[in-house]
């Protein structure tokens, strides 16, 4: 049990500069009850909890410590003096989130749980460093199997249907808030015996279309509007299968949600729907550029 606790995210000391907004300053929080807050270990989470997750920054620290040898090896291979490379590290993270289908208890002896589960996970895709006076960043680690389950790190497991927008928002909302806080800060972590500073970039490229629509507050798959980033209707798309272009951004989707919410022109529901073209009445969680 004590060995297991050492292996869990939450064992490594680290610091954020500046400190993360709206995130606990405690570095040793391993596990969080996805709907009600801080726990230290698996043991402390009540049995009927529907979501368990690691705090995002703590999980990233654990992932980087797992790659410590690869990072040091990458510096050596590139001929970089590890004692001078203490800052300027950039980490690109791929995020994935998807439903896991039916996970219900088949033989009637387990606890009563919702039948569906959702998993949010991430993969460290690459780590690069900009040596103090050098111009270009040098890649010192590249994930060789970015789609393998071995490189994909689960961060949040939830008993919920991916179509249950409210519960999903309640659980993943704090995850998104933590990620947003990390974008404006640098992680200070001991790697190879020296404190080094890391910046993170997140790419939400592991969502399928259903999850993109869910995260972005767009109408579901039965919508008249077929695309997440253009205004084509089914009829238009069936007549014109070739000349499609991306005509709106994630930021513009967000603006359209605001139009739906405030209805500035006092239009009927039908007119309003025609104006926002496929943005639904659900609030957004995500406006990250994804590979659509």
Automatic annotation (TrEMBL):
User: Can you tell me where the transmembrane regions are?
Assistant: none
Output the Pfam families linked to this UniProt entry: RAG1_pre-RNase_H (PF26025), RAG1_RNase_H (PF26100), RAG1_ZnC2 (PF26101)
Extract the coiled-coil ranges from the record.
Answer: none
Which Gene Ontology CC terms are recorded?
DNA recombinase complex; endodeoxyribonuclease complex; nucleus
The residue ranges of the V(D)J recombination-activating protein 1 ZnC2 domain are: 225-287
Question: Which residues does the UniProt record annotate as the domain V(D)J recombination-activating protein 1 RNase H?
Answer: 91-223
Show the InterPro entries listed in the entry: RAG1, RAG1_pre-RNase_H, RAG1_RNase_H, RAG1_ZnC2
Q: Which Gene Ontology BP annotations are present?
A: adaptive immune response; B cell differentiation; chromatin organization; T cell differentiation in thymus; V(D)J recombination
Q: Which domain of life is it from?
A: Eukaryota
A GO molecular function annotation here is: sequence-specific DNA binding
Q: Which residues form the V(D)J recombination-activating protein 1 pre-RNase H domain?
A: 15-87
Q: Which PANTHER family match?
A: V(D)J RECOMBINATION-ACTIVATING PROTEIN 1, VDJ RECOMBINATION ACTIVATING PROTEIN 1 RAG1
Name of the protein in question: Recombination activating protein 1
Query: Which organism does this record belong to?
Result: Homaloptera ocellata
**Gene that encodes the chain:** RAG1
